[in-house]
């Protein structure tokens, strides 16, 4: 049988070969709202347990073919969660004690029984049964949550590794791009929206700074760029974009220089201007 999500009701099984005893037990327990099942032998009780989930069993000891201790020992193996109570006379104490020592019996009550004592013990047995059921359910939920968390962590680890590889690829590409930029035989300067030089290569540093120590990056373009070039740069930022296929020849430092100014930001969010200077 598959476990339900929770016990929908308290199912009690009474096992005794004496029909009058079973009827008397049912009369005593009917007021407690249990679903009461009955069996007149251990074999009949085992057959019933194979079809119906039972929370608590109350069994007589003296029954033909299979004693109560033998029956409850079998129940312990097949349905260990079921709470097992035995009713017996004092003459059966030795066999009952053995069953208790083997863990087959949760509680032993003597015949004739006291109704209130019997009802209290059955109620407490159901509470133990339901508490154990809830503990198993919570344990299963916790295990499921842990498995989901492990799966999430594995997926997160995979994504982190993939992102790390992507970052490494991008860094390598950036280093290659920087290497290419540095070795270009022309001066390249990138100016951001604040007019600061954000990118420059070795050729531009040499052309615009000469033998000065340091580079152009971080300087205001207006301090190192000729005014003619800055006017063109400001036109780009102002939306008056020059024809990107057109270059101007200016005299910079006494040398004729071809100057191209091109706006950035068409394919990315990085707005700025690229200035390319080629000495003729």
From TrEMBL:
InterPro entries cross-referenced by the UniProt entry: Bact_response_regulator (IPR050595), CheY-like_superfamily (IPR011006), Sig_transdc_resp-reg_receiver (IPR001789)
A Pfam family it matches: Response_reg
Keyword Coiled coil on entry: yes
Record flagged with keyword Transferase: no
SMART domains found in the cross-reference section: REC
Residue ranges annotated for the Response regulatory domain, each copy included: 11-126
Domain of life, source organism: Bacteria
Coiled-coil region(s): 135-166
GO terms (BP aspect): phosphorelay signal transduction system
Keywords, ordered alphabetically: Coiled coil, Phosphoprotein
Residues modified as 4-aspartylphosphate: 60
PANTHER family given in the database record: STRESS RESPONSE REGULATOR PROTEIN 1 (PTHR44591), TWO-COMPONENT RESPONSE REGULATOR-RELATED (PTHR44591:SF19)
Name of protein: PAS/PAC sensor protein
Organism expressing this protein natively: Methylotuvimicrobium alcaliphilum (strain DSM 19304 / NCIMB 14124 / VKM B-2133 / 20Z) (Methylomicrobium alcaliphilum)
